[in-house]
Design brief:
Elements: H1 15-44, E1 48-49, E2 52-53, H2 54-70, E3 108-113, E4 116-120, H3 122-126, E5 131-138, E6 144-153, H4 154-160, E7 171-175, E8 182-186, H5 187-190, E9 196-201, E10 204-205, E11 215-217, E12 232-236
Parallel strand pairs: 3-12
Antiparallel strand pairs: 1-2, 3-4, 5-6, 6-9, 7-8, 7-12, 9-10, 9-11
């Protein structure tokens, strides 16, 4: 088959044209570099919100609105068979974890109002309907594992203890007993069917380093939101303090 003539064509340009193109390319390159340096200097001159520059925080907040808008009450992540779950679950992050917790003395404290705190034992929680969740646990550091957890769905827990009124609030806040680690969770994510107050991992009680006696498992969020060893729960219409957000990370931390 004869090839079209354009395969044989060569383009010849004059030295003057070539020089003009080179000059234009260098000018455009210089403009882009100058603009990049100026933008970088401007960005670093902006005030900070916690440890995050305000323009970056505004971008993160815009992303949060998009992700929250995509959630509905039945949003779920993919679940896996038990056979897919790893046996050796990675331990990552021990801020707020205490060396020992006496489960018999421990109580989950739910602050309903100033001076009004509901205290619930682990045995009480275990009397509620149990749900198993096997999902791909994701960390902001880039690793992930299919992991197997069990506990009571947050929504079931709230309904059992007549706390449904707090579902109208914008956020839930959680803290470890020593208050050294704390997270804020948007209520829409907190009430999803796969969000559980977890007391088992791989069919056994949580190890101490995995949040014994009770931790949060919230599959639509990265690991920084899965608070280990819950001591206190409360509700608010303003964003509760969040450990990693105060260090410059995304407050929403979802995907």
């Amino acid at each position: 088959m004869k090839k079209p003539d354009f395969f044989k064509r060569t383009v010849t340009i004059s030295n003057t044209t070539y020089t003009k193109r080179v000059v234009i390319a260098f000018v455009l390159f210089a403009v882009l570099v100058t603009g990049g340096v100026y933008a970088w200097q401007w960005l670093n001159s902006q005030p900070k919100d916690d440890l995050t520059l305000k323009p970056l925080r505004k971008t993160l907040e815009a992303n949060e609105k998009i992700f929250k808008g995509a959630l509905d009450s039945n949003s779920r992540v993919k679940e896996y068979p038990i056979s897919a779950a790893v046996k050796n679950v990675k331990v990552n992050g021990l801020v707020g974890i205490q060396d020992t917790i006496d489960a018999a003395q421990w109580r989950l404290q739910i602050i309903r109002a100033a001076g009004d705190t509901l205290k619930v034992s682990l045995d009480d929680i275990k009397q509620l309907p149990k749900k198993e969740v096997i999902f791909d646990f994701k960390c902001i550091e880039g690793w992930n594992q299919v992991t197997h957890w069990a506990g009571v769905p947050v929504k079931t827990f709230l309904e059992h203890y007549h706390l449904q009124g707090f579902e109208q609030m914008q956020y839930a806040g959680l803290q470890t007993p020593n208050k050294k680690y704390f997270v804020g969770i948007d209520m829409k994510s907190f009430l999803l069917p796969q969000t559980i107050l977890c007391y088992e991992m791989n069919g056994k009680p949580l190890p101490m380093k995995q949040g014994f006696p009770l931790r949060l498992i919230i599959p639509v969020k990265y690991g920084i939101k899965h608070l280990k060893c819950i001591g206190t729960m409360f509700f608010s219409n303003t964003k509760p303090r969040d450990y990693w957000a105060e260090l410059g990370y995304d407050y929403y931390a979802g995907f």
